[in-house]
């Protein structure tokens, strides 16, 4: 075992810190303070994406030949730590962590050349079209049809939970190209290189937090070139499974959770408990905060083992273990945040949450985000394969 | 960063595992635990032969100069096999403190395995912090006299070397006491180890180190990493055995592990184990690098206690009626975890310390 920090890493930390202290605009910092989801305020997050790209740092996890940084795993973790310490809004995952890596693995050279640069630079935002009203956990029962016609497919049907589709200029989606045999066998993976196609309609869905984060997308005779297919026709299920690995794995998540917990601890020290002292002095609160500290530490340890290449990450159950741990910890921390702000969390502040809003927030920064973050976090155990499905997958690896 | 065992450490683990699989089946272990002595001199001799009593100590005392990683690698295996021999008492607890106070002569006897050591430290309902010791030491002639009660001293009634902590003037100090001197009430612990409550009543003692609070804290923190490794080893064994049982035990015509309720409980056991083991390995690496802090120890102790308990309780439930019997290792593995949790402050204590931010500034008595 070897955990020793080295001098080069500390030098790297300073370099990262200096950039992150100076590069973000005030609007980007404000967007960070007003982030209540994996998906932060769209315009500012994409602006920040382009600034990071100009520095060459938009995709630390990508291979160098596609525009990655070539950083070691330790460097990437340092970057994530410094990034989160400053409460900067995370870049959107769909391009960088999902369709980008997938195209590197399974896209044609033409598809790679056409799409990877825009993902890297932040010019393009890709929404994911997987779920349908009738196909959630049982994704393979999806029914949006794609019928070949000349060089195109003609699409009819609808997709739901397409995050930020109303902001997107690209979409990747699963469609049905055959009803023969096993339902997994008739699925095809397609890329839409524009969203203003005739017959395509996007309708935002207002979530529990009051934000139009999710959308529904309707297809009526929408034409898509067959050349935009990834993998073979009817082989989209294996393409999708490959992508799910990226979605469930992802990179270091614990630094963000660490920041959330530290803010909650700091605010608790200034919040009366109802027993005379501060909330931070209340033994019941201490016990619960301590449990989250310990759980977060274990998750950090798990993440560090995984990024260092420990066999724990080669366990077939690893993506599911990671997804369950990180989502449930996120939810528990979000509950603690609402507990700290108490009554202050009850004001519906969706207007004040807009970057550049004229509406003054009520209460402090934590009061502004705690309730919408809590409400939005209820989705973490639902999306990317519900935690029930993940537990099924973990159990399957345990049965001999 | 690298959190893997080296080839040598893997080899050592395999050697110890093979030896225990051969001579220390669960049935053999139960017979040993129920014997009059409560542990096996033959098994002990093999541990000595494998160098395991000498492992963590410097060469100057006949030790093998092994690292904390070596010790953790072995302790996980001992936990999985429910060892009742006095390795933890002698090598980890007594030996750990003797190494910290640099009592070379006594340490040489511990390292060679010829003497069994015991550490009399915890008092009352448990002593999570050395600053809380109330047993007192007073000067008496050329030496000292100790008064107080030490509880659940592993192998405390049968040790050859008795290391005792007591308050001398302002702070905790470390003493050596004739093992036959205190009044001992011996018993077997729920997890099958021999232990004793020891009563000191102006009992003569030799001072090994005064002003030993920091020294004790560091020695005990290291020992806790090893205790945690035993608990994690037992937790992994519970998971392995329960997954196997759920895959083969049939009810309603199918393996019970195919029922979603049972499957999800298995998944939760795996998640708990992975968390506990990740924290064990990370904390071990911190210890080796000399960067172990009180907060890290609190996290580790809390997690192996609470996550281990969860895995044990789920293992019993999944096994159903047979999980309730003394015949299966399941309950015994669970009890080993409960014992580790109860020693040196249970999970709740360490969690509250973490929540209060006290892990950085240890509590002191008034």
TrEMBL record, chain A:
One of its GO terms (cellular component) is plasma membrane. InterPro entries: Acyl-CoA_Oxase/DH_mid-dom (IPR006091), Acyl-CoA_Oxase/DH_mid-dom_sf (IPR046373), AcylCo_DH-like_C (IPR036250), AcylCo_DH/oxidase_C (IPR009075), AcylCoA_DH/ox_N (IPR013786), AcylCoA_DH/ox_N_sf (IPR037069), AcylCoA_DH/oxidase_NM_dom_sf (IPR009100), Mycobact_Acyl-CoA_DH (IPR052161). Keywords: FAD, Flavoprotein, Oxidoreductase. Residues 129-222 form the Acyl-CoA oxidase/dehydrogenase middle domain. Coiled coil: none annotated. Pfam families: Acyl-CoA_dh_1, Acyl-CoA_dh_M, Acyl-CoA_dh_N. Its cofactor is FAD. Residues 234-398 form the Acyl-CoA dehydrogenase/oxidase C-terminal domain. The keyword Oxidoreductase applies. One of its GO terms (molecular function) is flavin adenine dinucleotide binding. PANTHER family: ACYL-COA DEHYDROGENASE (PTHR43292), ACYL-COA DEHYDROGENASE FADE29 (PTHR43292:SF3). Belongs to the acyl-CoA dehydrogenase family. This is Acyl-CoA dehydrogenase. It comes from Pseudonocardia halophobica.
Automatic annotation (TrEMBL), chain B:
Its cofactor is FAD. Keywords: FAD, Flavoprotein, Oxidoreductase. Pfam families: Acyl-CoA_dh_1 (PF00441), Acyl-CoA_dh_M (PF02770), Acyl-CoA_dh_N (PF02771). It comes from the Bacteria. Residues 218-357 form the Acyl-CoA dehydrogenase/oxidase C-terminal domain. InterPro entries: Acyl-CoA_Oxase/DH_mid-dom (IPR006091), Acyl-CoA_Oxase/DH_mid-dom_sf (IPR046373), AcylCo_DH-like_C (IPR036250), AcylCo_DH/oxidase_C (IPR009075), AcylCoA_DH/ox_N (IPR013786), AcylCoA_DH/ox_N_sf (IPR037069), AcylCoA_DH/oxidase_NM_dom_sf (IPR009100). Coiled coil: none annotated. Belongs to the acyl-CoA dehydrogenase family. One of its GO terms (molecular function) is acyl-CoA dehydrogenase activity. This is Acyl-CoA dehydrogenase. PANTHER family: ACYL-COA DEHYDROGENASE, ACYL-COA DEHYDROGENASE FADE28. Residues 122-189 form the Acyl-CoA oxidase/dehydrogenase middle domain. The keyword Oxidoreductase applies. Residues 6-81 form the Acyl-CoA dehydrogenase/oxidase N-terminal domain.
